[in-house]
Amino acid sequence: MKSIWALIQLEFRMEMRRKYALGGAFLYVLSTVFIIYASLQNFKELPWNALFWIVALFIAVNAVAKSFASEQDGTQLFLYQMASGVEVILAKMIYNTLLIFVLFTLALLAFMLFLAIPVMHYGLFMTAIVLGSFGLGIVLTFISSIANKTDSSAVFTAVLGFPVLLPILLSLIKLTQASFMLEAESVGNDIVILLAIDTILVGLILILFPLVWKD
Amino acid sequence: MIKNWWKYLAVVLILYCIVVGIMRPLNPGILQVTPISFQSGTTQELIIGTYNTNFEPQQSIDAFIKINDAYGIQNTKLEVLAPNELKATFDIPAKLPNILKRQGYSLILSADKVGSFARPNAVTIVQKDLDLDGAMAAWPSNDFGNFKRPEKLNFPFRAILYESLRNLFYHVPMWFGMTFLLMGSLGYAVRYLMTNKSSFDTISKSMIQIAVLYGILGCATGSIWARGTWGTWWTFQEIKLTVSAVTLLLYFAYFLLRSAIDDEAKRARISAVYNIISFVAAIFLLFVLPRMVESSLHPGNGGNPGFGGEDLDNTLRTVFYPAVIGWTLLGFWLAQLTYRTELLKDYFLEKYD
Amino acid sequence: MYLHHHQLFPFYNGMKVNILASIFFLIASFEELSAKDPIDVAIHSSGKIYLVVGTLAVIFIGIVLYLFSIDRQITNIENQIKDNE
């Protein structure tokens, strides 16, 4: 537990050291929203939903894709030698989930600022964002660890990640769509499915990551 | 035990599903009725065009317009115009035992040998005024409900589908075969991770190759079927098409990943890991998400992506299940051929390099 | 709708059947089919059996393509063996 906390702190310090990465994500959100604002003034809920999740997906991929890139230089090797594979992936998944949650919230704020927001049920929408950042965080962390074994890890994070993420994204889109209605429809099933996918994936990842981490 | 008995079984079952699936006729059905709409209290001559019938001039045929489960109007005269055309005369009472002024009713034909068959919403009858009790009291007695049973059980007649119903034995088993191959591939991926034997990795990869081939064939055959029945080659409105396309993407990514890693052991390990993760995603895509949508053009929509009851009757089952087993076994056979070719390649690569 | 023998092969008697002629017959028979009364065609195609034919043809083509790819790989192995002997 202690080493996981230490690893999360390490991740955070590394993120702070390369400020351009986080700043890049912020700028990415703002510029995308501005382009949407400039090109379409008023549009309906469905395109709003689609654009939000497209922006969210790309921010998440950009933020997590380089998650394992810094391991190659071996600067932090000593710390990783002390921690087990399970601890490393847990720390990274927690850190990336938090990072993606912050970026999603930021994206939501930017969307609220520039584009009239059709959300009626903020509770439901925030549930979707929390579940979404969790699902995207764990899947993308693991996929980036796989992609890191190839020569072009950024490309492979996207290529391998998108189809795996699709069941999660489809459920998320349904959840946020329900949050646009005044009376939320039965979304219980979607939440259960999201939780089920997330649980199964976390379990599998904890078993499988040591195999990826081996060398 | 005969060596490779399952390959012979595959051949026999596929032969069976092609021969019986094509040769066995459909039950007769009603293609069109003219006129399709008229007033109550009139005498109507209906021209009924039927499918797959061979009516003879003297054959005894009864025609009914079904008002509800208890009440039906029987024909007064019936004339066979052609082997697939009838002229039936009905005296429509002025008052029908129905509380709706305008409604579509089923037309039922009942004949010797071929049995009885119906067309839902075949005719629309318009009533001038409603009198439920009066209509029930004055209803002429007839033997409605006493329908003849067919001598032979054939495939069901379904409007829109018609003969293309037989695609059930060729299109659907592609998806079953793909799923079983993916399961097999998952099993060998797990075995590889447990033993690190490179042959397991090759088997796993070969199975995915054939699974992808089956998936592509499933999409292509489904596309043809959709063009003829839904009127479109492809639609993203239909969840099953979307999820099957994404499942194929998952496994295209698998091959891309394999091609990007040079070290053999590392490639085998990483792709086995990705295989397991993508299988979870594929299960959610193929089996969970289609259950979540309200509407689907595929049978068994609204909660259940499979089919049962009305959509798969016993005559279809006798061919469908063998077809699934046969095409699946063929898939495993093709996967085995791929695997053995890979094995030969590796063997001679090592020997001569 | 159905073509009679003399329609399909109008000058079959005493004439050498070459490939060119057969292609001509093929095209002619397609035209014969398409030139029919549309209602007639609609009734005959309402069975939609052509969808089953198409489906089986697609599966057959898919499996044949797979066979060609296996064939090519085995040829490569054979060539390798020949080169090294």
Describe this structure in words.
Chain A has 215 residues and is an all-alpha fold. Chain A has one domain. In chain A, 80% of the residues lie in helices and 0% in strands. Chain A is built from eight helices and no strands. The relative contact order of chain A is 0.14. The model of chain A has no long low-confidence stretch (mean pLDDT 81). Chain B is of the alpha+beta class and 353 residues long. Chain B has two domains: 109 residues, Sandwich (Immunoglobulin-like), CATH 2.60.40; 191 residues, no CATH class. Helix content of chain B is 48%, strand content 18%. Chain B is built from seven helices and nine strands, in the order αβββββββββαααααα. A five-stranded mixed beta sheet of chain B has the order 2-9-8-4-5, with no helix packed on it. In chain B, strands 1-3-7-6 form a four-stranded antiparallel beta sheet, with no helix packed on it. Chain B starts with a helix and ends with a helix. In chain B, 41% of the residues are buried. About 2% of the residues of chain B have low confidence. Chain C is an all-alpha fold and 85 residues long. Chain C folds into two domains: 46 residues, no CATH class; 39 residues. Chain C contains four helices and no strands. Classes of the chains: A mainly alpha (215), B alpha+beta (353), C mainly alpha (85).
